[in-house]
Amino acid sequence: MGELPEDLGATAIKHFLDVFITPEVERRQAAGVLPRPVELRAAQIICHGDGRPNGIRLNQEVRAVAGMRLKHGVSKVRGEAVFEHELDGLYDIRLPDAEDPNCGHATILRLGRGWTLAFDFVYNKAIIRDHLAAAEQFLSASRHALADGHMAAFVENLFAAAELAAASWLLRLPNNPVRPRRGSHGTIRALYNRHTHLGNVPKEHARTLNRLDALRPAARYRKAPLALESTETAQLLQIVTEMVAEAYARIDTGHDSGVGDSGDEEAVGATQGTPPRNRHPP
User: What average pLDDT does this structure show over 234-245?
Assistant: First the structure.
């Protein structure tokens, strides 16, 4: 195999081929269900956030939808077939709607003499959207409670919105202990604070979650007088609103996704190379 260009797209493609695709190609060849050599034109890694093994798809097994950039002078009407020689590139490659929306993926497609890699490692998108829809309801309830001067209801509803936003951030990650009906208040807060210390979460977001949690005993359980200044209530409301909006943005705009290209047709040689030390069979 020739040397790959020293760019991120080529390096990432080679990594996915070496670590994930090569072992699956060799496993199938050893089982007699894949020819030697194999012409690889597409590969896909389906990643589950709940600990299940990765699924590996090859060639015609790959399922994806993508935007297409046509070459200059080529025009098409909706529904008309598009051929490979008419394409200038692909973008926004994603799993079809029929796929499990809680999965992540890496999809590698050969186009002409090069390769395109698309990945999206935001896990649990459907679960996150459900969490955030509920967070918006609690956020709306907190605004109404504040307008009516019902401070206990304001704190309790705003805490629920903040906690759901924090849980949504954590649910993006694989094998996370925050699961429906499993994540306790303390678990969510501790994990969220840990990511703040790592620089992954804005400090004011974690401070707001911690502050609302500290106010709950007085607000809900009446263990102490509940005293809040109007300036603080406005700030708390603003930051929780930001937390919910940012959580939505992370699943809608692909903060953990991307598309890269390699113009090196020899990248496919990785499917016939030495097996990598770390294997991830399906």
Answer: 97
